[in-house]
């Protein structure tokens, strides 16, 4: 109880910059979520991240370069991805800039981490386009699976939303090959990958790249081309990926108050189809609901026009928790065979 009280009453997030934002200043700052496991273990710490501010003022290519505890890295990256910057008077052309920031997680006001997370940016280009080019042309270190994973993480940092799924499919395909090898040959794939760059890695995997929003053709000419009917063909993404891609501050659901009464205690999750243009459609509800509720959901969701945060987007599926007034003891009530 004492630890939780400290978090709720004394929780501070301390931010310090190792580079002054000569070209950009912070316009919107989002605090990272303190990991529950760290709270229970009374762990405090910090993370130093390197990143670019692109011409739209959005942090891009975010990477931890030093942390006092790995548990803080994911929430730090997630929080920084939601920060927004505005150009200074000297940056009329909105030139991208590479920066670092330290995010500190503390449950008391007087914690001083000193140089715990002191680290220099990696020695790479300060030009955002060249940075990506250099990353994708770097030789992959596959002398071990650990070094391979580190190389993969560096590549993933700079991939676009269109490039990432294809790369991960390629990576999965190569890992599947590895798992099918005999024990005595378990280093064969690593040897084949070691020293390749991103493009050579993709070619080795030989996984066909399906364009945005394209549905696999089963060969059945009578198969429906309706996205709703073929919804299972689209990936089901998690909340972290959804927040990274779309601005979700205003996704209203409008229905009569008596309908809200039906979902204020037994909370409702629904499956949505999010089209690449930001429109959405209701696919399914996690349990049977009245026709009136379903109609209200469909009408509200059909009016959404979600703003994208990234240049290119794909059609995806997403589990959405319907906002409603919550009664004491409210819980999410879904059928046993629901998506989870």
Automatic annotation (TrEMBL):
Family matches, as PROSITE patterns: TONB_CTD (PS52015)
NCBIfam families: tonB_Cterm
Protein name: TonB C-terminal domain-containing protein
GO cellular component: membrane
InterPro entries with a match to the protein in the record: TonB/TolA_C (IPR006260), TonB_C (IPR037682)
Compartments (UniProt record): Membrane
Keyword terms of this UniProt record: Membrane, Transmembrane, Transmembrane helix
Lipid bilayer topology: Single-pass membrane protein
